[in-house]
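User: Fold this; tokens only.

Assistant: Input:
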Amino acid sequence: MIWLCAFGLVALAVGYEGMSQHGVESLRPVLRWRGLLTTALTIALVLGVAQEPGGGHFVALFAGLVALGFAAWRQELAPDLAPALQPIDDALEPSEIVAVTASGAVPLRLLEQLRTARVHGSLLVHCRTANSTTAFASPPGAPLAALLPQTSGFEIGGPAAGLLGVGPRWDGIDGAAVAGTTNPLAVQPVALATAAEWKTERPDHPVLGLPGEPLPPRQGPPSLLPPAAEGIEAPWQLGRVTDDGWAPAEPDGVPGRWLGRWAARSRGVPGA
């Protein structure tokens, strides 16, 4: 039983990575319950080792705890709820890309780390792999978080959806209802621009972030190509999605919904 619990924790962590990085959709029904399953397996593992201590069982405990720590680091267990961003005192490089809101500019490198963030009545959602940035009108209730990955992007939902697998969930790229509700999220076009362009247009607006926490380092495109992106030329190329479809676009200060070429093509968006 002890080794079975340890194997279960490892399997849940590996399964999440398999669905996230390799599109193994058959794991989705099980992984929706990963919060409950992980809690039950962890308790059973710890109690089992406490009752039957021994060298081999301590190895099982170590393996289970390593898998648990990895899953927590990857936000697989209890996804981080979207924090409310506040003005911070931080100088940005002129070429840095920011998401421009009415309250200030959010560095894209921060959104890459947070994945979801709140700015007054808006919810900003960013997926580095899909190269997507979208703003939604925040629904009432608890803040949302990034949940299970999809072929492109990820689902978003509240604490109940993340921990218990119940409650409303939405598509984090276009706001479409996924489960638990029939009401989509209202999209609010968001502008991307360089820090230099933003400061020129709105010199009095602050940088938004998490007070007391440094901004994360800037990153390039992901090194691992998703299965749906294979064979697509310039898969990471950024584009703007409108009613007419997808078109390549640089961060130019024009509001829109932003999406990488491969993700747009995987969703059947014309023009990609």
